[in-house]
Amino acid sequence: MINIGCHLSSSGGFLAMGKHAVELGADTFAFFTRNPRGGSAKEIDPEDAKALVTFMKENNFGRLVAHAPYTMNVCAEKESVRKFSWEMLSDDLDRMQYVPGNYYNFHPGSHVGQGTDAAIPMIADAINSALRPEHDTTVLLETMAGKGSEVGKTFEEIARIIDLVELKDKIGVCFDTCHTWDGGYDNVSDIDGVLKEFDSVIGLDRLYAVHLNDSKNDRDSHKDRHEVIGGGFLGEEAIRRIVTHPLLQGKPFILETPNEDPGYKKEIELIRSWF
Ligand code: FE
Ligand code: FE
Ligand code: ZN
What we know:
Elements: E1 3-6, H1 14-23, H2 46-58, E2 65-67, H3 79-95, E3 103-106, H4 116-130, E4 138-142, H5 155-164, E5 171-176, H6 177-182, H7 191-201, E6 207-212, E7 214-215, E8 226-227, H8 235-243, E9 252-255, H9 261-272
Parallel strand pairs: 1-9, 2-3, 3-4, 4-5, 5-6, 6-9
Antiparallel strand pairs: 7-8
Bound molecules: fe (iii) ion (2 copies) and zinc ion (ZN).
């Protein structure tokens, strides 16, 4: 069994997201820690956060997979963007303390011409400067499609970042099924092989969460355009094999498919019917 959920709006606060998740049949969810396209953050109501923690226990939720804003680029070439991103990362990890014991996922970043070799130490330095021993959050690097100058498009790049992170017990990976496919990994006909490669390059003990998406594009396209489950190049059968894969049980799966509530509800129902 897995935990399944989708991205939810945080506009009503923490407890409202928990209730919304239950309405959709979910037992985990993702949310943006701040405005995803800007970066401004709302003040947290500690009582509301506590109420969610209680609600999650009562409803047997799996761990949440918070998502950093898209504007965050900790390896940006422009110093002002980089500095702002480092500050957001640090502030977000402090804010995650209100809902301890969950995951915080972020895109490693885009090197914008500096090259991957220059970007990798920057990404690790950003994590090392933000992440402290007292944080109760595991930071997840998301596997990327390799659009533009994205870093993290191969397991090797992710492994090189992790190698440079100091607090090894607080770093992991979120496996995005659309991104890895777009990045060239054959999630359709050889998910066993893909996971085997993940294990030998990164280690499956670092795979904490899955972003569950179909893809509008064929393998190795480096496009990063999500599709609804079964509507794209991965297809329902391949997605079913991923969801029910023995090595992925017990993890939170987050839908980032182009849907409104009814679509998410249907996808969650479909996924639950596979168990
Ligand atoms: Fe993402
Ligand atoms: Fe994703
Ligand atoms: Zn994506």
